[in-house]
Automatic annotation (TrEMBL):
It comes from Prosthecobacter fusiformis. It comes from the Bacteria. This is Uncharacterized protein.
Length: 171
Protein backbone atom coordinates (compact mmCIF):
# COMPACT_ATOMS: atom_id res chain seq x y z
CA UNK A 1 0.00 0.00 0.00
CA UNK A 2 1.30 3.44 -0.80
CA UNK A 3 1.44 6.48 1.46
CA UNK A 4 -2.03 8.00 1.89
CA UNK A 5 -2.44 11.05 -0.30
CA UNK A 6 -5.09 13.75 -0.61
CA UNK A 7 -7.45 13.09 -3.50
CA UNK A 8 -9.42 15.58 -5.56
CA UNK A 9 -12.42 14.08 -7.33
CA UNK A 10 -14.61 15.71 -9.99
CA UNK A 11 -17.51 13.56 -8.73
CA UNK A 12 -20.24 15.82 -7.31
CA UNK A 13 -21.17 13.16 -4.73
CA UNK A 14 -17.79 13.80 -3.09
CA UNK A 15 -17.92 17.61 -3.30
CA UNK A 16 -18.57 18.19 0.43
CA UNK A 17 -15.75 15.94 1.60
CA UNK A 18 -11.99 16.01 2.00
CA UNK A 19 -10.77 12.74 0.49
CA UNK A 20 -7.68 10.62 0.83
CA UNK A 21 -6.55 7.72 -1.35
CA UNK A 22 -4.86 4.69 0.19
CA UNK A 23 -3.82 3.24 -3.17
CA UNK A 24 -5.14 1.74 -6.38
CA UNK A 25 -6.10 -1.79 -7.38
CA UNK A 26 -5.63 -2.98 -10.96
CA UNK A 27 -8.54 -5.34 -11.69
CA UNK A 28 -7.28 -8.00 -14.13
CA UNK A 29 -9.47 -9.96 -16.53
CA UNK A 30 -9.31 -13.20 -14.50
CA UNK A 31 -11.42 -14.05 -11.42
CA UNK A 32 -10.21 -12.18 -8.39
CA UNK A 33 -11.25 -11.13 -4.90
CA UNK A 34 -9.99 -7.77 -3.68
CA UNK A 35 -10.80 -5.29 -1.00
CA UNK A 36 -10.14 -2.17 0.96
CA UNK A 37 -10.70 -1.57 4.64
CA UNK A 38 -10.15 1.06 7.32
CA UNK A 39 -11.03 1.42 10.97
CA UNK A 40 -12.37 4.44 12.80
CA UNK A 41 -13.15 5.23 16.42
CA UNK A 42 -16.33 7.33 16.25
CA UNK A 43 -15.90 8.80 19.75
CA UNK A 44 -12.47 10.17 18.76
CA UNK A 45 -13.59 11.58 15.43
CA UNK A 46 -14.37 15.27 14.98
CA UNK A 47 -16.54 14.50 11.96
CA UNK A 48 -20.21 13.57 11.73
CA UNK A 49 -19.97 11.73 8.42
CA UNK A 50 -17.38 9.61 6.65
CA UNK A 51 -17.13 8.47 3.05
CA UNK A 52 -15.79 5.04 2.19
CA UNK A 53 -15.37 3.95 -1.43
CA UNK A 54 -13.72 1.95 -4.17
CA UNK A 55 -14.19 3.91 -7.39
CA UNK A 56 -12.99 3.45 -10.93
CA UNK A 57 -10.22 5.83 -11.92
CA UNK A 58 -11.97 6.16 -15.29
CA UNK A 59 -14.97 8.49 -15.37
CA UNK A 60 -18.15 7.78 -17.34
CA UNK A 61 -19.93 10.52 -19.23
CA UNK A 62 -23.68 10.52 -18.54
CA UNK A 63 -25.81 13.26 -20.09
CA UNK A 64 -22.70 15.35 -20.71
CA UNK A 65 -21.55 15.08 -17.07
CA UNK A 66 -18.49 13.12 -15.92
CA UNK A 67 -19.51 10.61 -13.23
CA UNK A 68 -17.57 8.16 -11.12
CA UNK A 69 -18.66 4.57 -11.05
CA UNK A 70 -17.87 2.17 -8.30
CA UNK A 71 -18.88 1.48 -4.75
CA UNK A 72 -19.30 4.38 -2.32
CA UNK A 73 -21.19 4.97 0.89
CA UNK A 74 -21.56 7.76 3.40
CA UNK A 75 -21.74 6.67 7.04
CA UNK A 76 -23.46 9.01 9.48
CA UNK A 77 -21.43 8.68 12.68
CA UNK A 78 -24.24 10.08 14.85
CA UNK A 79 -27.15 7.93 13.63
CA UNK A 80 -25.33 4.90 12.20
CA UNK A 81 -27.14 5.28 8.86
CA UNK A 82 -25.33 4.12 5.72
CA UNK A 83 -26.22 5.95 2.50
CA UNK A 84 -25.31 5.16 -1.11
CA UNK A 85 -23.32 7.92 -2.81
CA UNK A 86 -22.98 6.88 -6.46
CA UNK A 87 -26.00 4.84 -7.56
CA UNK A 88 -28.94 6.83 -6.17
CA UNK A 89 -29.96 3.81 -4.08
CA UNK A 90 -30.69 5.83 -0.95
CA UNK A 91 -30.42 4.22 2.46
CA UNK A 92 -28.31 1.04 2.35
CA UNK A 93 -28.80 0.18 6.03
CA UNK A 94 -27.69 1.18 9.49
CA UNK A 95 -25.25 0.07 12.14
CA UNK A 96 -27.11 -1.66 14.96
CA UNK A 97 -24.26 -1.49 17.48
CA UNK A 98 -24.10 1.79 19.48
CA UNK A 99 -21.39 4.09 18.13
CA UNK A 100 -19.92 4.70 21.57
CA UNK A 101 -19.15 0.96 21.88
CA UNK A 102 -16.23 1.23 19.43
CA UNK A 103 -12.81 1.86 21.01
CA UNK A 104 -9.11 1.86 20.14
CA UNK A 105 -9.04 -1.86 20.93
CA UNK A 106 -12.30 -2.58 19.04
CA UNK A 107 -12.68 0.10 16.34
CA UNK A 108 -15.46 0.37 13.78
CA UNK A 109 -14.44 -1.64 10.70
CA UNK A 110 -15.37 -0.36 7.23
CA UNK A 111 -14.65 -3.02 4.60
CA UNK A 112 -15.36 -3.42 0.88
CA UNK A 113 -14.82 -6.93 -0.49
CA UNK A 114 -15.26 -7.31 -4.25
CA UNK A 115 -15.44 -10.56 -6.20
CA UNK A 116 -14.74 -10.40 -9.92
CA UNK A 117 -16.51 -13.13 -11.90
CA UNK A 118 -16.90 -12.86 -15.66
CA UNK A 119 -17.83 -9.27 -16.47
CA UNK A 120 -19.25 -8.52 -13.01
CA UNK A 121 -17.70 -6.93 -9.94
CA UNK A 122 -19.86 -8.10 -7.04
CA UNK A 123 -19.44 -6.04 -3.87
CA UNK A 124 -19.98 -6.91 -0.25
CA UNK A 125 -19.91 -4.06 2.25
CA UNK A 126 -19.08 -4.99 5.82
CA UNK A 127 -19.42 -2.38 8.54
CA UNK A 128 -18.83 -3.50 12.11
CA UNK A 129 -20.17 -7.07 12.14
CA UNK A 130 -22.93 -6.42 9.61
CA UNK A 131 -22.91 -7.18 5.88
CA UNK A 132 -24.78 -5.05 3.32
CA UNK A 133 -25.57 -5.74 -0.32
CA UNK A 134 -24.72 -3.14 -2.93
CA UNK A 135 -25.28 -2.92 -6.73
CA UNK A 136 -22.75 -4.77 -8.90
CA UNK A 137 -20.57 -3.03 -11.46
CA UNK A 138 -19.49 -4.12 -14.94
CA UNK A 139 -15.77 -4.78 -15.30
CA UNK A 140 -13.97 -2.96 -18.11
CA UNK A 141 -10.58 -3.92 -19.57
CA UNK A 142 -7.59 -2.46 -17.69
CA UNK A 143 -9.89 -1.21 -14.92
CA UNK A 144 -8.20 0.50 -11.99
CA UNK A 145 -10.09 1.09 -8.74
CA UNK A 146 -9.05 3.89 -6.38
CA UNK A 147 -9.40 3.41 -2.62
CA UNK A 148 -11.12 6.46 -1.15
CA UNK A 149 -11.97 7.55 2.36
CA UNK A 150 -12.95 10.97 3.57
CA UNK A 151 -14.94 13.18 5.86
CA UNK A 152 -16.50 16.63 5.88
CA UNK A 153 -14.39 19.40 4.40
CA UNK A 154 -11.90 20.82 6.89
CA UNK A 155 -11.95 17.88 9.32
CA UNK A 156 -8.65 16.20 8.33
CA UNK A 157 -9.31 12.75 6.84
CA UNK A 158 -5.79 11.48 7.49
CA UNK A 159 -6.39 11.54 11.24
CA UNK A 160 -9.85 9.91 11.07
CA UNK A 161 -8.92 6.59 9.48
CA UNK A 162 -6.63 4.00 11.07
CA UNK A 163 -5.27 0.61 10.00
CA UNK A 164 -5.92 0.99 6.24
CA UNK A 165 -5.45 -2.14 4.14
CA UNK A 166 -5.72 -2.86 0.41
CA UNK A 167 -5.57 -6.48 -0.69
CA UNK A 168 -6.28 -8.88 -3.56
CA UNK A 169 -6.18 -12.62 -4.13
CA UNK A 170 -6.81 -14.91 -7.08
CA UNK A 171 -9.84 -17.18 -7.03
Amino acid sequence: MHTPAPLVSPETAFASYDLVSFGKVLVPAHPLRFGFQVDIVPSQSVCKQVVFALVSSELEIQNGVKRSHGFAVRVDIETGEIWDLLNDSGLVGWIEQPMDSFTDEEPLLLNWEIEHYGAALIPKLKIASEVFLYPALRHTPDMVMDTVAGNETGKGPLTTFIHPAVWKESL
